[in-house]
Amino acid sequence: MLGGEVIRRRQEDADLCRQPVEEVTFELLEEDGGPLIWPRITEQEQDAFDASCRKFYRFLMTASENQIQQNSKLKTS
Questions:
Q1: Hey, where are the domains in the chain?
Q2: What is the pTM of this model?
Q3: Residues 6+ apart with CB under 8 A from 25
Q4: Is 1 helix (H, G, I), strand (E, B) or coil?
Q5: CA 14, 16, 18 angle in degrees (round to 5)?
Q6: 7-63: per-residue pLDDT in tens?
Q7: CA angle 52, 24, 62 (to 5 degrees)
């Protein structure tokens, strides 16, 4: 669902079309979940989607922090 939302928003917004997909995806994610899906889905489906987006957001944040730590270790070596 997140991929479909990224595609939909990139098609509707020329500025988003110029941004890398990774950036657009990360901008749609928040600590609280993902974007509201349109056309509207049920509340249960949105809750499940938000739970998946929260997990994905935490994964991306952890991966980003690990990359920063690795880069700083390389610079100090």
A1: 2-76
A2: 0.81
A3: 2, 6
A4: coil
A5: 80
A6: 999 999 999 999 999 999 999 999 999 999 988 999 999 999 999 999 999 999 999
A7: 50
